[in-house]
Amino acid sequence: MIKWNHAGLSDVNSKLTKALNKTTYDTLTDINQSQVVPFHIGTLEGSGQVAEAKIGDTTAGISWNTPYAKKLYFHPEYNFRNGRMGRWADNWIRGSKRKWILRTFKTNAKGLIL
């Protein structure tokens, strides 16, 4: 018979949620430092915010909150300057930076993930 340590499981869930939220903030910071968000005076880049996960959730999110964020994101054909681009988060979602997110989460989870 297996006897569950519910307090221990709750602690693990709490730590994993904190690791997920920290990783999401780290990702937003990395996106901004990579200078890929279209930039005129910094309003769009500065509008990035994290929707934190609650304990037990498996997702957190990042959004950019300006009236024109969606239009710029979904129109990479626009002529952005200095390496800025539309679909600026795609590299972190499904591109080469995805592995960076996984490594960062593992580091933030501090031994909970092998």
SSE diagram, text form:
Elements: H1 6-33, H2 43-46, E1 48-51, E2 61-64, H3 69-73, H4 90-93, H5 98-108
Antiparallel strand pairs: 1-2
Helix pairs in contact: 1-5
Based on secondary structure, the structural category is mainly alpha
List the secondary-structure elements in sequence, H or E: HHEEHHH
Give average pLDDT, whole number. 93
Question: Fraction of residues in helices?
Answer: 40-55%
Regions with pLDDT < 50 over 5+ consecutive residues?
none
Profile the largest sheet. 2 strands, antiparallel
What separation lies between the terminal Cα atoms? 26 Å
Order of the strands making up the biggest sheet: 1-2
- Molecular shape: elongated
Global Rg: 17 Å
Task: Provide the domain count.
Answer: 1
Number of strands: 2
Strand content: 5-15%
- Number of contiguous helices: 5
